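User: Run a structure prediction on this.
Assistant: Running it now.
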Amino acid sequence: MKYALIGCGRISPNHLEAAINNNLEIVGICDIVPEHMDGLLEKLNIEKDAYKKYTNYKEMLENEKPELVAIATESGKHAQIALDCLDAGCNVIIEKPIALSLEDADKIIAKAKEKYLVVCANHQNRFNKSIQKIRQAVENGEFGKMLYGTAHIRWNRGQDYYTQAPWRGTWAQDGGALMNQCIHNIDLLRWMMGDEIDEVCAYTDNLNHDYIEAEDLGMAIVKFKNGSYGIIEGTTNIYPKNLEETLYLFGQKGTVKAGGKSVNIIEEWIFADNNEDAEEVKKNNSEMPKNVYGFGHTPLYKDVINAIETHTKPLIDAEAGRRALELVLAIYKSAAEGKPVKLPLTKCSTMDFVGRFDK
């Protein structure tokens, strides 16, 4: 299967590695900054001339006709590039978030259906061993009635991170901590707790990053339609470095905690009706990745390739990407309006919150 990568920044090595691990035919890589492409290949110890390089993705699509394209550019450019790829007949993997507005997410969903193409939102933590094991328990009903779940993302991002790529922290191209750093765990919480949300009540603030436009702290309570609740706490203010990303699930008959730097370790596994040895479960379903991106890209790619070949849906389709986006935008909206927000939302964008933290 012919594959191409658009965007060669911070997350791109994970994408290219996943493509290589899945034996894809890499027909091109693209970035508007040529040095980014060289840096990516260098990082993976790949020869400088191993793949064709483009600075114009439309030219690459036309010349190489890839069947699968990964989009790993600034978040604000995801939607337009995805629509162009779909128009060119390509299946796409879109780095999180799928878009920065619900209207754009809906356009991607509609276009994919019209063209009979696969779209995957890149929430790779769903493929963590820990998360797969927990999801199995959810689907088997081992928790009994779900009571509540919590997502904590306690990370650090300093000024160097934002200086390195000035689009970060802007409303037009990114959003803040919740949209960029925390959306993975927000996706997991929504997925585990039944997906359907009644309302969201939230606060957001910029406490420690006066050089960015968006939030560095978000706290929310989520009321799910099945009667359970969710608590979200996300920040990039933790001193002096990333502390943890944890997911707790509490049911009438089960308690689980996934922790580590990126929910990659099962730390608690207690069930009334599960005969598995808890220590064995923890040992066999925990991983220690070298960074917060984990090991999820390779199995995510495998899942997408299978979906393309079998004409089925990938585990994380465009609708799943939209749901994660919707919850972040609902948090922004509730915080900005100072009141609970009912879901579903039909229209909302990061651009609705321009000026929110201007002093």
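The chain has two domains: 2-125+297-316, 129-288+323-353.
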